[in-house]
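User: I'm writing a short report section on ligand binding and want a predicted complex to refer to. Could you take this sequence and pyridoxal-5'-phosphate and write out the structure as tokens? A short remark afterwards would be nice.
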Amino acid sequence: MPTTQAREITAASRLEHVRYAIRDLACYADEVAKQGHKILPLNIGDPNVFDFVTPPHMIEAVYKAMREGKNGYAPSQGVKEALDAIRGESTRKGISSLQDVFVTTGVSETVDLCLTALVNPGENLLTPSPDYPMYSAVLAKLGIGLNTYDLNEEDGWQPELDDIKRKITPRTRGIVLINPNNPTGSVCTRKMLENIAELARGHNLVIFADEIYDKLVLDGENGECIAMASVAPDVPLVTFGGLSKNYLAPGWRIGWGIVSGDPAAVKPYNEGIQKLLRARLCANHPEQYAIKAALEGPQDHLIEVRKKLRTRRDLTVKWANSTPRVSCVSPRGAFYAYPCIDIPEGDDIFVRELILQKHVMVVHGSGFGQKPGTKHFRIVFLPDEQTLSRAYAAIAELLQERYR
Ligand SMILES: Cc1ncc(COP(=O)(O)O)c(C=O)c1O
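Assistant: Sure. The structure tokens for the complex follow:
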């Protein structure tokens, strides 16, 4: 029998700053669920929780791959059929300086690998504020401090160029651009992309273009956004894409990276990415066979998805802008709205009370980073109109009861 008392095993100190507000709220939801109440989840961007289903031809492709024995490890970079389909997609996106493509376990892994392969301790990476919090979580894990640039609410949440210029230091290695944006739903103008490309060119920055929502543009003609890499063919750039959002299969955990730019400039960095790809063996194997089916098969579901999202977006913005203490820039893409709230306490407290008292779950703006003094919350407007209306009535009720 052991005679010494077991000592507490502490987690590594580098985890101290790792946060992921979207899922960190789960403890309040659990409390409410234990009391027998059903939560209205407007917090997680998972279309499959609502009335969106994975296109059947993609399911068939995975099923066929499994039946045909594609159940062992895959090549580290990805299976040939998937890589070819991603190359085809790059051409359709207008990326003329393609250097390499690779498949990952969701864009989450693309982000982790690409950031790890680039940034050394003491260097920094520009990330937007507000931000999709996975970027700051990965940087925290790597021991890299945050260097955020503002998205400007008064300018429809477009990146603030002067702020980007101010924040570039000799140790800045790259810039993250999420377009269409999570959490604000903004979509960058061509002019903005050109201006950011110019800054990257002038300061030798790598651009990470997170375009995971690129086929969910709700205004405009073809429902797609302009690819950053098509505007900046000479700039070292990795475009992120995947099956989670456009193709309604987040649980399959399939993402990819498209490396583009001047070949000599990106070569050593791409070798670093490849090294990390090998070190983690491979992405999910059978699910990779859905990539060709998704990118080259029927795209009809996208028309339906955008139609639903447009109606739900309009309902959300109409509600927000007619509710006292709330105002909202209309989102142009993805499925998030990021209303501003005028309340005398922290938005985290408001969100906690909303969960506990009204059983509606949104995410507080402070979980994404925001300009000091401002308060927001992020809504996922994926649920049907009836569910959204119920949630919005409950939010208005809490605002009225708490701050009248
Ligand atoms: C901007 C952005 N990038 C990446 C991801 C992660 O995507 P994946 O499911 O492919 O890991 C998300 C998920 O919500 C996202 O919003």
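A remark for your report: The chain has a mean pLDDT of 94. The longest strand covers residues 98-104.
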